[in-house]
């Protein structure tokens, strides 16, 4: 499995640990790289989960699965065609890709200047109308699209509550100006999801028909199976000092 924009390694390590997947995660952040590989070593997963400081366009080989969570917002509309063309090249003929991104429900728009300046330089939240043509031109098939509407508002609310509970620590690490800015960012983002038509989308892609089941029923069965694996695996890992 290839994890494009692997972050701190959480998803890749979960899949390696619970499913026994052989994971390659790529990031452009040296800080994320160090933390992700340290986590892999701490969990004795370095042999099955490796994290690289590498651009996804330079990754060699092909993969059974490709996943990208929270990275696509930084690709930019001008590079969507190149992104999906490269994903098509990296995906095995029988492979499956899942793309998860924040998006807009009401069509293309500009990024808020305050967000660009202080939070996410170069960020752009896409509309599906901008994404789907690039997927089609890359020769990939859309098998499923899931829209998560208010879910992320609840996530942002929880993040803000946790931040506020430790706000004094943030001031000690940075300063009062940063704390005000971060509180405003989390609150404004929550309201954008509640009131201004932001959402998360998840797109499932393949290269040909018949790779995934016809209906979503298999997802619920797989979730139940994974919960069973977790119940069996987690206690054993804790006993082993994990």
UniProtKB/TrEMBL annotation:
A Pfam family matched in the record: CMAS
GO molecular function, one term: methyltransferase activity
Keywords: Lipid metabolism, Methyltransferase, S-adenosyl-L-methionine, Transferase
UniProt keyword Transferase, yes or no: yes
Gene3D superfamilies tied to this protein: Vaccinia Virus protein VP39 (3.40.50.150)
Keyword Methyltransferase: yes
Family designation: Belongs to the CFA/CMAS family.
Name of the protein this chain belongs to: Cyclopropane-fatty-acyl-phospholipid synthase
Species assigned in the record: Bradyrhizobium oligotrophicum S58
């Amino acid at each position: 499995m290839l994890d494009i924009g692997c972050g701190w390694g959480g998803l890749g390590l979960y899949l390696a640990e619970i499913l026994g997947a052989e994971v390659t995660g790529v990031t452009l952040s040296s800080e994320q790289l160090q933390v992700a590989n340290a986590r892999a070593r701490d969990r004795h997963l370095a042999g099955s989960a490796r994290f690289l400081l590498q651009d996804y366009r330079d990754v060699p080989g092909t993969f059974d699965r490709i996943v990208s969570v929270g990275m696509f917002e930084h690709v930019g509309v001008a590079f969507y065609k190149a992104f999906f063309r490269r994903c098509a090249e990296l995906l095995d003929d029988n492979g499956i890709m899942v793309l998860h991104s924040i998006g807009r429900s009401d069509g293309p728009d500009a990024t808020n200047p305050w967000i660009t300046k202080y939070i996410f330089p170069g960020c752009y939240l896409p509309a599906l109308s901008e994404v789907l043509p690039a997927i089609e031109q890359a020769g990939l098939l859309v098998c499923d699209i899931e829209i998560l509407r208010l879910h992320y508002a609840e996530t942002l609310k929880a993040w803000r509550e946790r931040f506020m509970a430790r706000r004094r620590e943030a001031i000690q690490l940075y300063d009062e100006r940063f704390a005000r800015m971060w509180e405003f960012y989390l609150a404004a983002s929550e309201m954008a999801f509640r009131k201004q038509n932001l959402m998360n989308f998840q797109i499932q892609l393949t290269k040909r028909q018949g790779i995934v089941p016809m209906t979503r029923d298999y997802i619920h069965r797989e979730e139940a199976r994974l919960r069973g694996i977790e119940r069996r695996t987690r206690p054993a890992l804790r006993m082993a000092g994990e």
